[in-house]
């Protein structure tokens, strides 16, 4: 089984049943912005979990699939 998920940059760890492991909620937003070429308009040291809560989203996947922070 490949470690890469379709549409994901780089390798993401998987759980024992093969599903992708969730991104840690204490990841800094600046890391996510750099990795996905986005600008969410918040401080870079904000945690991903805080941003998801603020935007009422459940996961990094939901955030990346939304139009939030896309550069025009």
Structural class: mainly alpha
Rg from Cα: 13 Å
Shape: globular
Mean pLDDT: 82
Please give the largest β-sheet: none
Count of alpha and pi helical runs: 3
Query: What portion of residues belong to β-strands?
Result: under 5%
Helix content: 25-40%
What is the N-to-C order of secondary-structure elements (H for helix, E for strand)?
HHH
What distance lies between the first and last C-alpha atoms, to the nearest angstrom? 36 Å
Total number of β-strand segments?
A: 0
The residue ranges in which pLDDT falls below 50 over 5 or more consecutive positions are none
What does this structure look like?
- With 72 residues, this protein is mostly helical.
- The chain has a domain of 37 residues.
- The protein is built from 3 helices and no strands.
- The chain is globular and about 35 Å long.
- The protein starts with 28 loop residues before the first helix and ends in a 7-residue tail after the last helix.
């Amino acid at each position: 089984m490949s470690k890469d998920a379709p549409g994901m940059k780089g390798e993401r760890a998987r759980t024992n049943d093969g599903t992708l492991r969730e991104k840690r909620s204490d990841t800094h937003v600046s890391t996510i912005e750099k990795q996905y070429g986005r600008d969410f308009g918040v401080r870079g040291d904000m945690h991903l979990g805080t941003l998801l809560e603020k935007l009422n989203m459940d996961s990094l996947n939901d955030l990346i699939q939304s139009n939030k922070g896309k550069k025009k």
